[in-house]
Design brief:
The structure holds two protein chains of two kinds. Chain A has a two-stranded antiparallel sheet with strand order 1-2. In chain A, β1 and β2 form a beta hairpin. Chain A is built from ten helices and two strands. The mean pLDDT of chain A is about 90. Chain A starts with a helix and ends in a 14-residue tail after the last helix. Chain A has helices at about 1-30, 35-75, 85-110, 135-155, 160-170, 170-175, 180-200, 210-225, 230-250, 260-270; strands at about 125, 130-135. In chain B, α2 runs parallel beside α11 and α3 packs parallel to α4. Chain B is an alpha/beta fold. In chain B, a hairpin with a 6-residue loop joins β11 and β12 (about 365). Chain B has helices spanning about 1-35, 50-70, 90-100, 115-125, 155-170, 185-200, 220-230, 240-250, 265-270, 290-305, 310-330, 335-345, and strands spanning about 35-45, 75-85, 105-110, 130, 150, 175-185, 205-210, 235, 260, 280-285, 355-360, 365, 370-375, 385-390. Classes of the chains: A mainly alpha, B alpha/beta.
């Protein structure tokens, strides 16, 4: 039971990365392999600024800073590739990921840097028999807040309506006299900012090193593929499912196969539902 | 006639001068061709071993600088060619290029046991010496051993036996339950095998034993299992960033069972940081050893790079010094001559309390190891000095071979 709950919580971390990936791909058609790099940059910014502004401060400043970098990337690089062959943007972001990783290595050095949970977030929570890290419950609350906020933004605002229409049919949106360009910039900022936020949240419990982005990007892609493109809830369900499968495999003693299991899950989903669990039919990707 | 005289004299002068120049000059030209002694340095500089590789490179550079400042080797300058070994295939290709094209006299480096093996195959085929400074696997010293490969890095058996003594002293072995997490690849499996042999030989048992995929970053599921298993000791056969991740999350979950492990690097303790770093771990060397050699090395390294050396730095620094000293002692750069010199039991200052030597049977460096134990957070003064150390293992009254693999544990047969 503990393993089931913990697995679900584990999935939430992937969610922060996967939502951004899915958004940027759905609207811009860009497979952002550099997403992990933004996660790493978020973690490193936290290390640099938290001595001055505290963990609480970096929780706000660091994702904003990463989102700013995201806007610059969108403005000068992504923009050129929206209508191009996806392989080009794949190469672009693959290269960006390497440049970012090597940049971090040159500035901060290759050895991992130390960073800890701030004292006021340490400790355990006791819910009956279930003992859990206090920090992770906070993490869960923040992540859940972000997901709810994003859902509200996409489903209940006029901004969200344009974005969703743009995912389905950008030409029609254009014909109606709406330029998608500013929307795309905001979506990139949002998605990349979320990756930065994940960097801040995970820096205290994961090892902070230049290649940390690679560790998280692959499971996040698996989540996006399982969830299906263009589907908000698909990504949410997929993230929880991936966390659950992994946690249960470890719980029942097949830990060596825990990573393999999520790929098997992806394979099964793709066999039976090629568009992913809740994937919508998007004309331009068919 | 006068004209002739002058010209004849001039001619003689010219010829004499030319002969003189040629006489001195010719050896100069010959010398110029082999004016430098080249050593190849191959180690992973990217990927999960990259952080350690960075220390390896810094230390090798420092060693070369010191050797050249002291006049080089046999009056010749030492030149180091550095490459990222990346993976076993690339390591092999680069080793071959260093030997065939760049004519290196020896290859130094490596951390991954798998890459060690492919480099050793090139070394054996081309009869070039290879000094392994970071591959731990026992297989490299037994089934896969090569005559042209020498091991400055300790083998897994030495790691297990040196930290095992600390566990025995603390009463964490006999009749106790261990919970182990093992990295699911060759290094982890090799370590688990040696650890199980140690545990069974000393009357303990395993409460749990999980294999961890190498890309796992989150240990919460394992931590929940450990919490309910209530082991007497949590044992890690993990490597690299995984150890740091585990330690950070172990502290996050507030678990207090004693922790230890059989493979370790001081950079991982530094990355986990004060308060998160717990347990007792084996290291091949650390920067707090109180010997003149170590203190001099630490001072020079810290002065050059602004931070103390990690244990991987010791391996590559020492290997360069061993190469230089062996060439000086044999007055030769011939691999086979140096090999015989090393096999004859040549002694080296390994910056510890006793001199070390390479064991003839498997070319493993016999030297002292240490077990380090994390300091409680309130006793930590700075970000580097976060552990205390055992005395040298084996102790002063024991032979250095006491912690190495015995002939019935591992056998090496060199093919010519």
């Amino acid at each position: 039971m503990q393993q089931v709950l913990n697995g679900l919580l584990d999935g939430v971390y992937y969610l922060l990365i996967a939502l951004g990936l899915s958004l940027i791909f759905s609207l811009g058609g860009i497979v952002n392999l550099a997403h992990g790099a933004f996660y790493a940059i978020g973690a490193y910014i936290t290390l640099v600024i938290s001595p001055y502004v505290g963990f609480g401060g970096s929780l706000i400043i660091s994702p904003l800073a990463v989102a700013m970098i995201g806007i610059l990337f969108e403005r000068f690089l992504f923009k050129r590739f929206y209508r191009a062959d996806p392989i080009l943007s794949l190469l672009l972001t693959f290269g960006l990921a390497m440049v970012a990783e090597q940049g971090l290595r040159m500035i901060f050095g290759a050895p991992p840097l130390s960073y800890s949970i701030p004292p006021w977030l340490k400790g355990q929570v006791f819910l009956g028999d279930f003992v859990y890290s206090f920090y992770r419950t906070i993490l869960l609350a923040i992540a859940a807040g972000c997901v709810a906020g994003l859902w509200f933004l996409l489903q209940k605002t006029s901004f969200g309506r344009v974005v969703r229409a743009g995912v389905q049919n950008p030409d029609m949106v254009g014909a109606l006299g709406i330029s998608l360009q500013p929307y795309m910039a905001s979506v990139a900022a949002l998605g990349i900012g979320l990756a930065g936020l994940a960097g801040v949240l995970l820096a205290p419990i994961y090892s902070v090193h230049p290649a940390m982005g690679n560790e998280i990007i692959t499971p996040a892609f698996v989540v996006v593929v399982i969830g299906g493109l263009g589907s908000f809830w698909g990504v949410v369900v997929a993230a929880l499912l991936v966390g659950l499968v992994k946690g249960v495999m470890i719980g029942i003693g097949y830990s060596a196969a825990s990573t393999a299991a999520i790929y098997l899950l992806m394979l099964l989903v793709l066999l039976f539902r090629p568009r992913g669990l809740f994937g919508e039919r998007i004309t331009r990707f068919e | 006639m006068t004209d002739f005289d002058i010209s004849r004299r001039g001619l003689l002068k010219g010829v004499g001068g030319a002969a003189l120049v040629a006489g001195i000059g010719a050896p100069a030209i010959v010398r110029a061709q082999s004016d430098v002694i080249r050593i190849g340095h191959l180690t992973p500089r990217t990927g999960f071993l990259g952080p350690l590789g960075e220390y390896a490179v810094m230390a090798a550079d420092l060693a070369v600088e010191e050797i050249n400042a002291a006049g080089g080797i046999l009056g010749r300058k030492l030149e180091i060619l550095k490459e990222d070994s990346v993976n076993p295939q690339t390591a092999s290709t680069k080793a071959e290029r260093m030997v065939e094209r760049d004519k290196v006299s020896a290859i130094v480096g490596e951390i991954s046991s798998a890459s060690c093996l492919t480099i050793a195959q090139v070394a054996q085929r081309t009869k070039t010496l290879f000094f392994n400074t970071g591959g731990n696997s026992d297989a490299l010293r037994s089934t896969d051993c090569k005559r042209y490969m020498f091991h400055v890095e300790s083998q897994n058996s030495m790691y297990v036996k040196s930290v095992g003594r600390s566990f025995l002293q603390d009463g964490l072995v006999k009749g106790k339950k261990w919970y182990s997490l093992t990295a699911d690849y060759a290094f982890g499996h090799d370590l688990l095998k040696v650890a199980k042999r140690f545990m069974e030989g000393n009357g303990g048992q395993f409460a749990g034993d999980d294999l961890v995929p190498t890309d796992a970053t989150d240990f919460s599921s394992y931590l929940l299992k450990i919490r309910s298993a209530k082991p007497d000791l949590v044992v890690l056969n993990l490597a690299g960033a995984q150890i740091t991740n585990f330690l950070k999350q172990y502290s996050e979950f507030g678990l207090t069972f004693p922790v230890g492990g059989f493979g370790f690097d001081t950079a991982l303790a530094w990355a986990a940081g004060k308060g998160n770093f717990v347990g007792t771990w084996p290291v091949v060397w650390h920067h707090l050893i109180q010997t003149p050699g170590t203190q001099k090395f630490v001072a020079a390294f810290t002065k050059k790079y602004g931070k103390p050396p990690e244990n991987q730095a010791w391996g590559d620094y020492l290997a360069m010094k061993v190469v230089a000293q062996s060439m000086a002692e044999t007055k030769s750069t011939d691999s086979t001559k140096i090999l015989e010199h090393l096999e004859s039991g040549a002694k080296f200052d390994v910056l510890k309390t006793r001199e070390g030597y390479f064991r003839k049977s498997d070319h493993q460096l016999m030297h002292e190891m240490y077990a380090v134990t994390a300091l409680p957070a309130d006793k930590v003064k700075n970000q580097w000095d976060i552990f205390t150390s055992s005395g040298p293992v084996p102790g002063p009254n024991e032979p250095l071979e006491a912690i190495a693999s015995t002939p019935d544990e591992a056998v090496c047969t060199f093919s010519a």
